[in-house]
């Protein structure tokens, strides 16, 4: 089995969060799906802002945006590629309609957001979004995020209710918080020795498991999916953030439904 191991130290201090689920192992806070400041890229529901181990005051994810031109924090999902409309605008499942910036894609802005209905029940965040018919595109998207035993589980269901195919992929983007300069982080691929070398930007895999360790108390975060992800990207900025991003293909003919899950297991890291 393909593996990816990272070590992160000294994540950011925790911020507050009114929307939260928790158990004996951790507490997860969420961005407000109705917040228009969340931008055009990521699913607004199920967007984890912070993940706090039990009795801890620090989040394993950045709780504040890393960039000033679009929100980038926590652990979020994105659908790619965008679905083109005749006006030149784009449809982004999980968000709504956005308009491309003439020079910089990442500075694009939403022009019409589709609302989310959501609630907290039984240690789960449950949310639903409907996309009305737009030039043959239409969908129903449901998300449930559950605090299991030492595990955060996202379950998504996407139904194509339109007359055009929806072809693309979804990926999970965890913005892990790390120490400045990345001193101390490491990773291992396919059982190779631990390394502090630069990670490759992208890999295709038959099936996968991504693992990461983070926090002052050193926790291991294991990211897996169902179905198994087929690609993973590695990303980092130059100081205090790193990500491993698993991708799952999601293509639907009219009337079809797809279900996928992300599993993020949190365990205390044991040095070998």
UniProtKB/TrEMBL annotation:
One of its GO terms (molecular function) is carbohydrate binding. Residues 1-20 form the signal peptide. The keyword Signal applies. Keywords: Signal. This is Uncharacterized protein.
């Amino acid at each position: 089995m393909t593996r990816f191991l990272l070590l992160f130290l000294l994540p950011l201090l925790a911020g507050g969060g009114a929307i939260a689920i928790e158990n004996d192992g951790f507490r997860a806070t969420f961005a407000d799906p109705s917040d228009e400041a969340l931008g055009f890229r990521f699913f607004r529901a199920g967007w984890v802002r912070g993940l706090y181990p039990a009795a801890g005051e620090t989040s394993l994810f950045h709780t504040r945006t890393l960039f000033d031109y679009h929100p980038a924090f926590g652990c979020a999902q994105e659908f790619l590629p965008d679905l083109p409309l005749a006006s030149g605008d784009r449809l982004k499942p999980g968000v709504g309609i956005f308009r491309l910036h003439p020079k910089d894609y990442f500075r694009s802005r939403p022009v019409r957001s589709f609302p989310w209905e959501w609630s907290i029940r039984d240690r789960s965040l449950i949310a639903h979004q409907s996309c009305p018919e737009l030039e043959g595109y239409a969908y129903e998207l449901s998300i449930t995020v559950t605090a299991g035993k030492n595990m955060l589980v996202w379950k998504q269901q996407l139904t194509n209710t339109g007359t055009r195919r929806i072809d693309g992929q979804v990926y999970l983007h965890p913005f892990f918080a790390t120490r400045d300069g990345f001193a101390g982080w490491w990773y291992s691929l396919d059982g190779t020795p631990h390394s502090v070398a630069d990670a490759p930007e992208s890999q295709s895999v038959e099936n996968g498991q991504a693992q990461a360790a983070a926090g002052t108390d050193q926790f291991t975060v294991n990211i897996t999916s169902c179905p198994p992800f087929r690609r993973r990207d590695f990303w980092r900025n130059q100081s205090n953030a790193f990500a491993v991003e698993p991708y799952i293909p999601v293509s639907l003919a009219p009337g079809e439904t797809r279900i996928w899950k992300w599993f993020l297991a949190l365990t205390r890291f044991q040095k070998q």
